[in-house]
Design brief:
heterodimer, A: six-stranded mixed sheet, 11 helices, 9 strands, 38% helix, globular, B: mainly alpha, 2 strands, 75% helix
Chain lengths: 252, 420
């Protein structure tokens, strides 16, 4: 079974092509990085395969033959930090409880059992009970990110899509999140992560989608991170990057 | 007068309630734009109705022009060079200009018939008649039912529209319904506060409630009550003078209350932030005194003076505050006064003081052994952090660096729980 099959995906904004004719398939049970320079269409790619923005062309299938619509209950999405109003008067637990919205009806409030389950989700991202009643604005950047990952856990999804979960977080949060992803991977879940820091790519991902409006390369991380590929994706910015990465590879 | 006051209170409740949605959705300026955009629509409605005040035509005209304003705003935002602050500022003044010109022109030609409409500019509460109370009450009832029935879904729709869209919960329906209620609330507020100030009439009570409680559901209640209060006050004040415009008076009441709340309110106001800081300073001072007292107690030095108690902390230089803290301790049976000006710890006080010293010494040990800080500097750091360590952190540190003695060779007091 394939977790996702993308065929001939193109997306444009105001007559500018953001993504050109992408084709790829991904096996389940891995962590996949979506990497590329600024403006290379990383977030656009994620949002378009989630059906959050319109596509010009292309078909997207989940689990071999499910459309986006049909697959939605099995997909959890963690937005970019910038998309959230952090001053909003809402507690960490309430955010996690949002993950149950598809299961609870229109009028139903969460039961004690639901709450206990969400507290468990918070615990899995290393946030103890006393964090549950805090407003999200009072948490640190890393804790805020973890609350939203806990919401994704509460959705009990099979595919997790995260937009820049590692940006602006502390090393403890990074450790916890990474550990959790590995655990999810073991359970056969598939995790897509938009990521901008090339130097941690090897540490995080099994496979990498290297983008620059077009699909530059896709495959196992070590096969993708080569000089020619990076030069194709990053252009003139690439040469110092390639050197640094090669040094890093030699050291590890 | 009774009719006017009833109208003002009902409108205040309505405005305060819906103002919260305006604030949460960051639509403050958009609300202002919508209220200004009602003005030309009202005039057109007046003309269409054959130069009479016919509610059906007035509402029709106003709704149409509010819709037009929103479409214009969306269209302008699509042109790249604009952000919403600029488009809204332009639209507010544009619609106001058209409205003011129309009213000016109409009042020259149809002065007597227009009397009712002129109040829409700055508001004239005296114009509220018994027939106005019913639509206001119905709108209030609908708003209360809508907000309480859909509270959770409405709030979440505002907070994360994208997420709820993704899980197929149609958040935009709730947003659209709330916008509709807001436009209607602005419309019925026009008679009393006028187009220019209608948006503030909704916004100010909600803004006041920000300083009253951190909890959103309470803010809704407080803000509705504030709206009723300022509506009533403004209307009463305007009835005192001869045809004083009600709108400015109501908003003035609200503005005064807002400034008061921002200064003195119980949540995040200047005063409450200051008091919290003071409280923290007081705790630090008291803990410093206790630690000093235990230091002398350990050395069996007998009763000590106020100056002795201040001597062990570099941050305590305040004699009157130290005396105050001591008086507090005497009352709490933590210290006893052996002779005038000579104090010693009671048995109870000894236990309390020991826990402070424990924090101090555990922190010192931790940063010396784990972080490689020199023992001389460790004391300064511990003076700060001893005030913030809780039992859980202490136990974690103790597990990391199990030891009986601090870096200066002094014994670390045991956790009270463990001693028993």
């Amino acid at each position: 079974m394939k977790a996702i099959t993308v065929e001939n995906l193109s997306v444009s904004y105001r007559n500018n092509m953001a993504l050109w004719e992408l084709n790829l398939t991904a096996d389940p049970g891995q962590i996949i990085g979506i990497v590329g320079p600024n403006g290379s269409g990383k977030s656009t790619f994620l949002k378009s395969i989630l059906g959050l923005i319109p596509r010009d062309s292309g078909s997207i299938k989940y689990f071999n033959n499910l459309s986006i619509e049909e697959a939605r209950p099995k997909i959890a999405y963690v937005p970019q930090r910038e998309d959230i109003d952090w001053d909003f008067p809402i507690t960490a637990l309430d955010v996690v409880l949002m993950g149950l919205t598809p299961r609870l009806g229109l009028f139903k409030w969460a039961s004690a059992e639901d709450k206990a389950f969400c507290l468990e989700c918070l615990k899995r991202v290393g946030l103890k009970e006393d964090f549950a009643t805090r407003h999200i604005g009072e948490l640190s950047g890393g804790q805020q990110q973890r609350v939203f990952i806990a919401r994704a856990l509460a959705q009990k999804a099979d595919i997790y899509m995260l937009d820049e979960p590692f940006s602006a977080i502390d090393s403890v949060s990074e450790e916890i999140i990474l550990h959790l992803f590995l655990e999810l991977k073991k359970q056969g879940k598939t995790i897509f992560i938009v990521h901008h820091d090339l130097f941690s790519v090897q540490k995080y991902f099994d496979s990498v989608v290297l983008l620059n409006s077009r699909l530059v390369a896709y495959g196992k991380t070590q096969d993708v991170l080569t000089g020619p590929n990076l030069a194709a994706a990053y252009g003139s910015q690439a040469s110092p990057l390639v050197e640094a990465l090669q040094k890093l590879q030699e050291n590890t | 007068m009774i009719t006017t006051l009833t109208g003002a209170v009902l409108l205040g409740l309505l405005g305060g309630l819906l103002g919260n949605l305006l604030l949460l959705r960051r639509m403050a300026l958009l609300g202002d734009m919508m209220s200004h955009s009602l003005l030309p629509g009202l005039c057109v409605g007046f003309i269409l109705a054959g130069y009479t005040k016919n509610y059906f035509y007035l509402f029709l005209g106003a709704s149409f022009s509010a819709l037009l304003a929103n479409i214009l705003n969306e269209w302008l935002l699509k042109q790249r060079p604009f952000k919403s602050d600029a488009t809204l500022a332009i639209l507010i003044s544009g619609f106001y200009a058209i409205g003011a010109l129309l009213i000016g022109k109409l009042s020259k030609e149809h002065g007597t018939e227009l009397a009712g409409i002129k109040g829409y500019l700055l508001g004239q509460a005296a114009l509220i008649q018994e027939s106005d109370i019913l639509p206001i009450s119905i709108l209030l009832l609908i708003s209360v039912v809508f907000i309480s029935l859909f509270y959770k879904r409405l709030i979440l729709s505002i907070f994360d529209t994208q997420f709820l869209t993704f899980v197929k919960q149609k958040p935009r329906v709730f947003l659209l319904l709330s916008t509709t209620l807001i436009v209607f609330a602005l419309l019925v507020s026009l008679q009393m506060v006028g187009a220019i100030l209608a948006a503030s009439f909704l916004l100010i009570p909600a803004a006041i409630s920000l300083f009253l409680s951190p909890h959103l559901h309470r803010r809704f209640v407080y803000s509705a009550l504030c709206g009723a209060l300022i509506g009533a006050c403004g209307t009463y004040l305007s009835s005192l003078g001869d045809r004083l415009p009600t709108g400015p008076l109501i908003v003035l009441c609200g503005f005064t209350l807002f400034i008061l709340a921002a200064t003195l309110g119980p949540h995040k106001s200047t005063l409450s932030v200051y008091l919290k800081k003071r409280e923290l300073q007081k705790i630090r001072l008291e803990e410093n005194i206790l630690r000093a007292a235990y230091f002398f107690y350990e050395k069996n030095e007998g009763p000590v003076s106020v100056l002795n108690l201040m001597s062990r902390s570099s941050e305590n230089r305040d004699i009157p505050a130290t005396r105050r803290a001591l008086r507090h301790f005497l009352k709490k049976n933590i210290f006893k006064e052996e002779a005038p000006g000579q104090y010693s710890l009671t048995n109870h006080g000894e236990t309390v003081a020991r826990s402070i010293l424990r924090k101090h010494r555990i922190w010192e040990t931790f940063i010396v052994k784990k972080l490689g800080v020199s023992p001389e500097r460790a004391h300064d750091s511990a003076e700060v952090y001893e005030h913030y360590l809780d039992e859980e952190i202490l136990r974690t540190i103790e597990k990391e660096v199990p030891t009986q003695k601090d870096p200066h060779g002094k014994k670390i007091p045991q956790d009270e729980g463990e001693r028993e």
